[in-house]
Amino acid sequence: MTEKTMKKYYIKTFGCQMNAADSDMFSEYLISCGYLPTDTPDNADIVIINTCSVRQHAEERAFTEIGDMKHYKAANPNGKVIVVGCMAENLGDEIKKKYQQVDLVIGAKNTQNFPEIMTQSGIIQKGIAAAVAKNDNKISSHITIMRGCNNFCSYCIVPYVRGPEQSKPVDEILKEITDLTERGIKEISLLGQNVNSYFSNNVDFADLLAKVSEIKNIKRIRFMTNHPKDVSDKLLKSISTLNKVCHHIHLPLQSGSDKILELMNRKYTFENYYQLVRKIRYYISEISITSDIMTGFPTETDKDHKATIEAINKIGFDFTYVFKYSPRSKTEAFKLKDDVTKEKKEKWHKELLDLCNSIAKERNTKLIGTLSEVLVESSADTPEINDDKKEFFGKGRDNRGIVFRSAKNLIGQSINVKITQAKIHSLIGEVEN
Ligand code: SF4
């Protein structure tokens, strides 16, 4: 069978890294069934739209994508359109009713059963052999170690669409990672809505980090995301003592106002959070701390907004994602009036984003002249620069993206890069000989 005659699949992924990890799993499965990936739905036999429900905007984009599949279906009547993920869980009936072009809907609670559902539905014929070995030269991969969430932050739909926390058994995780190392993976990111509350067979998250560290060919371990209330001293000790565990923690603050934090049901005050940050920096001085901030939560006032600005200034995050509150039906916050005007949300969002970006740039600028140990992930041709070098991309142990040029192919290697320039989202450097 030639590449031209082989069946193809196309995946469009919205949302978080957990969705990206699920899309990787779908991809692996389809490749093992003899399919090839394609970067356009036009020539695909299977189109998967992996959806997110966390914000209205993400839902709107997914709806547009699903709507556009009408043209795909008209041109490819035998093609299959599959909608998966959080929106599929939340709005599955509506999607099935409204969009005739959709063949199959798989909710977020069922994504791990994707292979069985694909064969049961007849889209994939049972017994197809693993025809193609995956060889995508990837250095870094992520695996989902737990699904669901028990925290019920008042604005969040995840506990409703992904269900209660379920930790994947340790042996399964270790086997998956070991298998990945056989394909050249050197860096693994452990994913969950709240990895700190991982618990399976008497193994907690700190223990799991130690076990993953023992896998010989894994050079780096990352993890996300963390709930501040569950970051234990034991975990901090593990991060500081296990060499392979990267020095980065994503710690969503959401708001600097205690009133808003309480309404969000975040279960900490700003002071609790601040003391935790101090403790983290005490254990691991060079750690990078990134965060999420939400603005325009119901009842939020200028005073609350000011408290958030003060909190951001006091902590100095290495990078921050800033979001506008988006009401989600089923959640507790949905019962509150969405009373912050659109204009105010825009204004606050811009102020916070500008502040967070300027702090990120300032913190990156302080790194100019220092060395970073970079695990090189990928390269790109930059035809506008006429030399024999290529541009390479990798990450430091602190999760900062670093771009540099080299004539040698360094993908997969750990090298020292001297930082020469700082941007908001990345650094530029030179290989240190
Ligand atoms: S911790 Fe809160 S924000 Fe995160 S997934 Fe759970 S409920 Fe949502």
Topology:
Layout: E1 8-13, H1 17-32, E2 36-37, E3 46-51, H2 56-75, E4 80-85, H3 86-98, E5 104-107, H4 114-120, E6 140-144, E7 146-147, H5 158-162, E8 166-167, H6 170-182, E9 187-191, E10 199-200, E11 203-204, H7 205-213, E12 220-224, H8 233-241, E13 248-250, H9 258-263, H10 270-283, E14 288-295, H11 302-315, E15 319-324, H12 342-365, E16 371-380, E17 390-395, E18 401-406, E19 414-422, E20 426-431
Parallel strand pairs: 1-2, 1-3, 3-4, 4-5, 6-9, 9-12, 13-14, 14-15, 18-20
Antiparallel strand pairs: 7-8, 10-11, 16-17, 16-19, 17-18, 19-20
Helix pairs in contact: 7-8, 11-12
What do you see in this structure?
This protein is an alpha/beta fold. It is 35% helix and 23% strand. Helix 7 (205-213) runs parallel beside helix 8 (233-241) and helix 11 (302-315) runs parallel beside helix 12. The protein is globular. The site of iron/sulfur cluster has 10 residues, from helix 5. The site of iron/sulfur cluster (SF4) has 10 residues, from helix 5.
